Amino acid sequence: MSVIRQPGLLGRTTRRRVVGVTAALSIAMVEAVAVGLWFGLVVGERSTSTALAGLGILFCGALLRAGVFGATVSDVRDLCQPQRLAAALALTGGWVVWLLVAELVGNIAGLAVATVVLTGVLTGQFVLERHVFPTRVHSPTVRTALVPALLLAVGAATLLASAWFTDLTLATPPLSLEITTIVLWIDVQHLGYLAFGLFAFLAHQQRFEQVLDP
Predict the structure, then answer these.
(1) CA proximity to 56, closest of 84, 99, 92
(2) pLDDT at position 173, please?
(3) How far is CA 203 from CA 67, 183, 190, 199, in A?
(4) What's 184's DSSP letter?
(5) Which residue has better confidence, 208 or 16?
(6) Element (H or E) spanning 185, and its range?
(7) E strand or H helix at 187, and its extent?
(8) Which of 80, 126, 162, 186, by CA, is between 20 and 30 Å from 178?
(9) Residue extents of the structural domains in the chain
(10) DSSP result, 22-55
(11) What pLDDT was estimated at residue 4?
(12) Could you give the dihedral angle defined by the CA atoms of residues 194, 48, 44 and 115, in that order, rounded to the nearest 10 degrees?
């Protein structure tokens, strides 16, 4: 009854949800592309050039993600302020630490330990990002940041597992055209990238539900 009496409230709530979903989708796309390109460069045999290129891509993606988050929840004037660069560096370092831990421990144990480590790192980074981009709603806490961090870490674990523990390719029968023959194939690692993007969207949607006014 109160909503019916205040139709503007329903409109504002709908707009906030649309903004939250749109921002979450944008950030998920940025994160999927940046982390995916970095992961593809360094997960196999890596060189100094590929490692540096991967770090550059990862940092640019982290900085862009911070920009989208800041533009959604606060008034962003300068992304190159030290505290905002620190948030992007923390995210970049978190992904590097995650992969190093997974490789040092190895196998399923490495995957599990790295997932726990990444969850902790992302929780801290999300809290830091909320301090960098203050909002009008409740202050950031470890508890509110834990669920989005866990979702993103599970997506990362799925991506790593698809590269480490599976070697399967799904292909369609040859499709004959007039001048050529086409075969469509999907590698399991491609599904890992897709799963990571989905978990990234769910994680950031959860974040925006917390930071945007109810």
Answers:
(1) 92
(2) 61
(3) 17, 35, 20, 6
(4) -
(5) 208
(6) strand 185-187
(7) strand 185-187
(8) 186
(9) 14-170+181-212
(10) HHHHHHHHHHHHHHHHHHHHHSSS--HHHHHHHH
(11) 42
(12) -60
In this model, does residue 182 exceed pLDDT 80?
Answer: no
Mean pLDDT score of the chain: 80
pLDDT at 1: 39
Provide the sign of the torsion angle of the four alpha carbons 132, 136, 140, 145, taken in this order.
negative
In terms of average pLDDT, the best of 91-95, 138-142, 163-167 is: 91-95
Q: Name the amino acid, one letter, at 190.
A: H
Query: 159 Cβ partners below 8 Å, 6+ apart?
Result: 35, 36, 39, 189, 192, 193, 195, 196
Tokens of 171: 């292909």
CA end-to-end span of the chain, whole Å?
Answer: 18
Overall residue count recorded for the chain in this entry: 214
- For the purposes of burial, counting CB atoms within 10 Å of the CB of 97, is it exposed (0-12), middle (13-18) or buried (19 or more)? middle
Dist CA 134 CA 70 (whole Å): 9
Distance CA 51, CA 61 (A): 15
Mean pLDDT of 29-42: 91
pLDDT for 43 equals 82
pLDDT score recorded for residue 45: 74
Task: Identify whether the C-beta of residue 204 lies closer than 8 Å to the C-beta of residue 24.
Answer: yes
